[in-house]
Every structure is written in structure tokens, then in C-alpha cells.
Amino acid sequence: FRDIGLDVIADDDPPDEATLHAAVLGHSVLGHAVFVVEDGGDNRRTPGGGTSGRTPPTGQRPDPAPRPLIAWMWLSVVDGDVLVEQVSVDPGYRGQRIGAGLLRTAVECAARHGLPGVVLTTFRDVPWNGPLYRRQGFTDMRAETIGPELRTVRCRETASGLDVLPRVCLRLDTSGIRTLTPQDAVRAPRGRSPAR
Question: What is the pTM (predicted TM-score) of this model?
């Protein structure tokens, strides 16, 4: 973000790992939910293009310490839709579709709980914001479709100084998305998988 003049974003420290882990342990889908991705040990990209994992030298056991968090997503519910409050991927792990996987989790969460959509607010034109989410299927919300709770979110963002570049509310309709349950596997005819 600093490279495009968004120092206010670059200077905003993410929650520390203890806060994220505590939020994960106490998560509730209809309150706030936090999803984290830990370092698998072999997928960090280094400036030279290789990977840098926590692979121990031959003959040694892996470090049993908790693995560092490489990505996280914070969800809540506004106006009957799941709100992606924030999704963040460590820059060393970008380009591996970790963020896309987290967004799929948000969509599946909404569908599983009968919520009609997933919404988020973001910078309209920053390549790894608005354009990226649109490629994931999100569409710009018209002003008249933005509910009162999401409008409040936008007002808080404006008050905190986030409107240094144009921002937009985006939504992905989940009404046609069906999630599979263990019962689907039992009911599926042999040799055929259930409809998705």
C-alpha cells in the first residue's frame, strides 16, 4: 500500500497473533468469526523466487512451536449478509490463492447459514482490492442496495481516514450456492456426486 501512496493503510498494524488466536477460539458465525491460515512450512516465497520453509535439517524433528500466521479473515454479519471486515495475506505468501481460499470460506459460511450474500468494502481501483474481488465474482453495489448497517461501516471508514482513494461496497450473491453436508454423501446415488 505504501508504494501507491496509502501510508494510512500501510501504517495500520494488523491484530497480533494472540488476538487472532483468541478470536478463533471464541468465534461464532452469527457474531464475529475469524479464520486463520498457518505457515505450512514450505510455501513462503522468497525474493529469489524459491521457497523458505521451516524444514528441519536432516535427522531433526520439526519445531513443535505454533506455526506463524500467514493469512487471516475477520467476518461479521450486516444487513443479513456476511461482511468480510478484513482479509489479509502476508506479502511473502501472495500469489498462492490463499486469499481466494479465505473468500471461498466466507461464501460457504454464508450459504451454509442461509445468508443471501457476502459483502465487503474496499478500494475501488487498487489492483489487489476492487479488481481482484470482482474477478472473484463480487459486483459493485448500487447506493440504494446498501443497507443501513453497511452504510454505518462506510461512515466509520470515512471517519477513520480510509477514503484517501475512492472506495466501493461489493457483494456476492450466495443464494444459488449449495454447500454439501455429510447427509448429502449418504443420499447421493452410487457413482454420482451430489449437485453443487
Answer: 0.70
